[in-house]
Write a structure and sequence with these properties.
- The strands form four sheets. Strands 1-2-4-3-5-16-6-15 form an eight-stranded mixed β-sheet, sandwiched between helices. Strands 10-12-8-13 form a four-stranded antiparallel β-sheet.
- The chain folds into two domains: 299 residues, 3-Layer(aba) Sandwich (Aminopeptidase), CATH 3.40.630.10; 113 residues, Alpha-Beta Plaits (2-Layer Sandwich).
- The chain is built from ten helices and 16 strands.
- The protein is elongated and about 90 Å long.
- With 419 residues, the protein is of the alpha/beta class.
């Protein structure tokens, strides 16, 4: 009896492995076949970038592409210009997984010599969101062709306004993107120019930091620069505040908990070589991973700024704008993602990553749905690395063939694992 049960399990495992192998082979063939079209879609998007909350033409273009795909239905204008839709498998067993891409560009003037460079002055897809859109459209094409290979539904989300707070993820959630259907898992990725094309990277648990902005108005007493004894110099006060703020990380943060605090802007109002200004404004960010410490750090920023200013006879008004939460990758979903990605790409092409202090509003989706957010290598071989948010940013477009195939494989395989 025991031998018979073992034999049944072996047969079932062999059958499952055969299905996975055939699914992988079929998806890779489809990804290869769609690649040229997806490149053209990406290049069109790259030429016509739109800023956060202004992605109307981008949204309309995506919808026109979705209309060409059989078996796809969608709703647009969710949380702004967001789009959400579905592809049904061979039957509906109640299971659903989601794939997400962001849509917006940045206020950066492109300096590449690409034949398809931005045609909109001062706006550029310098963060790879054009790649994200095109890759997800490719994955949707593949999944629609492979719908007989799975049961359940694949949800797809095109999200606006990732680059501008409060971000499109939270507005789509508030607008009901998950109201009628709550997926079992949601996946998304980001282009990564420091990682070779053909590779992905991921990390379970805390992965990307929360981000909050602080604004400090230091009010002193202006006057003639040659008579400092009659003034309360807000430049000196603000400089001492900046130095004191650094102790939040160096002397208050738990050493094992990543935290960064940066003052990125120091603005005087009305000063010149011989004039002490009345007001100085400081602007900066604080990023970390723990909500309790995040709240405590906010209190320290306020306390340090106010008390330091008071010691000099000045005043400090502090405003802290809560931004995106920390991005947490669900342990189980990420473990499955790593197994499936290894199956699709090979062990040598799936990397373990460290935490990143950059932020991402996909974190809001990850608070609602068990999530895995991973990095897709886009580095061009034999070319200098072009950083995200830089005017010369570019990618190896072959990464989209990898990305769309992997997204389709993840969606279909994860659904099949939920049976």
């Amino acid at each position: 009896m025991r031998r018979s049960a073992v034999r049944v399990r072996k047969v079932a495992l062999l059958f499952y492995e055969t299905i996975v192998m055939e699914t992988k082979k079929y998806i890779k063939e489809l990804a290869s076949g769609y690649f040229d079209d997806i490149v053209q879609i990406r290049r069109h998007l790259h030429q016509y970038p739109e800023l956060s909350k202004q992605e109307k033409n981008t949204s309309d273009f995506i919808c026109s592409e979705l209309d060409k795909i059989q078996g796809v239905y969608y709703t647009k204008n969710i949380g702004g210009y967001g789009i959400c839709g579905f592809i049904n498998g061979k039957s509906d067993n109640g299971n659903c997984v989601a794939l997400r891409a962001d849509m917006d560009a940045l206020p950066i003037c492109e300096t590449t010599d690409l034949p398809f460079k931005s045609k909109t002055d001062g706006i550029m897809h310098a963060c790879g969101h054009d790649v994200h859109i095109a890759t997800l459209l490719g994955a949707i094409r593949i999944i629609s062709q492979a719908k007989d290979l799975f049961e359940g539904r694949v949800m797809f989300i095109f999200q606006p306004s990732e680059e501008e707070y409060p971000g499109g993820a939270i507005t789509m959630i508030k607008d009901g993107v998950f109201k009628t259907t709550k997926p079992s898992a949601v996946f998304s990725f980001h282009t990564t120019p420091e990682m070779d094309c053909g590779k992905i990277g991921l990390k379970a648990g805390n992965y990307m930091a929360s981000t909050d902005e602080f604004y400090i108005k230091v009010i002193g007493k202006g006057g003639h620069g040659a008579m400092p004894n009659l003034n309360i110099d807000p430049i000196v006060v603000a400089s001492n505040i900046i130095i004191a703020l650094q102790t939040i990380v160096s002397r208050n943060a738990e050493p094992s908990l990543p935290t960064t605090l940066t003052v990125g802007n120091f603005i005087t109002e009305g000063g010149r070589t011989n004039v002490t200004p009345q007001i100085v404004r400081l602007e900066g960010i604080i990023r970390t991973f723990d909500d309790a410490w995040r709240s405590q750090a906010h209190k320290l920023i306020t306390q340090i700024a106010e008390k330091t200013a008071e010691a000099f006879g000045a005043k400090a008004d502090v405003f802290i704008d809560n931004g995106y939460p920390a991005l947490f990758n669900n342990e189980d979903v990420t473990a499955k993602t790593k197994i499936l990605a290894t199956e699709y790409l090979g062990d040598e092409n799936v990397l373990d990553l460290n935490v990143r202090m950059t932020a991402e509003d996909f974190a809001y989706f990850a608070k609602e749905i068990p999530a895995c957010y991973f990095r897709l290598g886009t580095r061009k071989q034999d070319k200098p690395i072009t950083n995200l948010h830089s005017s010369d940013f570019d990618v190896d477009e072959r990464s989209m063939e990898v990305g769309m195939g992997l997204e389709a494989f993840l969606g279909i395989s994860y659904l099949n694992s939920l049976k």
